[in-house]
């Protein structure tokens, strides 16, 4: 039989897997027009992202925004039909496995490299908890998560 100490460690490990990691977009530079057009693509390539990970966008409000586009609009820097847009710095948690296309809609920021495509892989499934550990984790079932859709629906 598993001791209570090991059950608690298992519950904590499952909670950590479900929460996901947090990444600051651009690391110390933050979200701004980059010094080189490939800066954000290089930043993305340093990490492996999975569902439930959170992107933190740090920028001066009124100077940039967070915009999510379809691949076609992203490639063309077309800002006419964003899937999502926020004028404020903040956190974006992705609850789906797919490729997402982030940019800034201000002026020529997209054309000047303030954009990145990012793939979120499926989160690994945690091991099945024992019945006593299940009861301890049921409290998190109410959590609401925001899901992006990376393509337009109904067109």
Question: How does this structure look, described?
Answer:
This protein has 155 residues and is α/β, with parallel strands linked by helices. Helices cover 23% and strands 21% of the residues. It is built from four helices and eight strands. It has helices at 4-19, 39-45, 71-76, 131-137; strands at 22-24, 49-50, 54-57, 66-69, 84-86, 90-93, 98-103, 115-121. The strands form two sheets. It has a five-stranded mixed sheet with strand order 2-8-7-4-5. The chain has a three-stranded mixed sheet with strand order 1-3-6, with no helix packed on it. Helix 1 packs across helix 4 (131-137). The longest helix has 16 residues, at 4-19. Residues 1-17 and 132-146 have low confidence and may be disordered.
H/E element sequence? HEHEEEHEEEEH
Tally of separate helices: 4
Structural class: alpha/beta
Strand order of the largest sheet: 2-8-7-4-5
Biggest sheet features: 5 strands, mixed
Relative helix content: 10-25%
User: What fraction of the residues are assigned to beta strands by DSSP?
Assistant: 15-25%
Which stretches of 5+ consecutive residues score pLDDT under 50? 1-17, 132-146
Which whole number gives the mean pLDDT? 79
Rough outline: globular
Count of DSSP strands: 8
CA-based gyration radius? 18 Å
What is the rounded distance between the termini? 56 Å
Map the helices and strands.
Blueprint: H1 4-19, E1 22-24, H2 39-45, E2 49-50, E3 54-57, E4 66-69, H3 71-76, E5 84-86, E6 90-93, E7 98-103, E8 115-121, H4 131-137
Parallel strand pairs: 1-3, 2-8
Antiparallel strand pairs: 3-6, 4-5, 4-7, 7-8
Helix pairs in contact: 1-4
